[in-house]
Amino acid sequence: MDDVYPPEHLGLYQRIVELGCVVSENEPGRTATARDFPRRNRVISGLSQAVVVVEAELRSGSLITARLAAEQGREVLAVPGSPLDPRARGTNDLIRQGAALCEGVDDVLRAIEGLRGLREPEADPYRPDHGDAEPDEALRERVAALLSPTPGSRDELVRATGAPASAVFAALVELSLGGRAELTPGGMVTSA
Fold first, then answer.
1. In 108, 119, 131, 168, which residue has its Cα 20 to 30 A from 84's Cα atom?
2. Which residues contact 47 (CB under 8 A, 6 or more apart)?
3. Which residues is 50 bridged to in the sheet?
4. CA 9, CA 22: separation in Å to the nearest integer?
């Protein structure tokens, strides 16, 4: 939490502490190690509505973040690159797997546009102040009926049901745990 890496980001860290919030799963005083970065990436993707991967080799921490974002039901976008550039292989592969192509800010805004109206706090039974409500069985069955063996977007399921994104994603997790759905990379889902 207080181990600034790389050290040249100390000024940025101090501004964030003063004006924002620093979040870490590690206790203060602990030095970060390489194995901490995937856990950090999970927190970053969990706090985001969308993740944009600009550049990534096939074995890259950015791809770990993209995978985690997809598993968390976040939008995943990737900037395409030359097939001759090894730094673009990961982003091009994400696009092949179903990530949205990103050529600029308009693509990001379009990707998250449908999510804005779906997160109404007073209508979301999964907010902490609403207790531990169980996902609605009727919604779970509606989501299951929309699944097919052909991969479909989780966001399309949200749009099709008109339910809060968190409720649809919770239903998908339950269907996956019950062996009725398979969550795949790139924010896609299939029937199991």
1. 108
2. 23
3. 75
4. 14
Q: Which CATH number fits domain 37-116: 3.10.310.10, 3.40.50.450, 3.40.50.2000, 3.40.50.1000?
A: 3.40.50.450
Which residue's entry shows tokens 């919770």? 170
**Which residues have C-beta within 8 Å of that of residue 92, sequence separation ≥ 6?**
78, 80, 81, 83
Residue 117 pLDDT exceeds 80 = no
Amino acid symbol at 2: D
Q: Is the whole-model pTM more than 0.90?
A: no
pLDDT in tens, 146-160: 999 888 888 788 888
pLDDT of residue 134: 46
Radius of gyration of the chain (CA): 18
CATH of 121-191, one of 3.40.1400.10, 3.30.420.40, 3.30.70.20, 1.10.10.10: 1.10.10.10
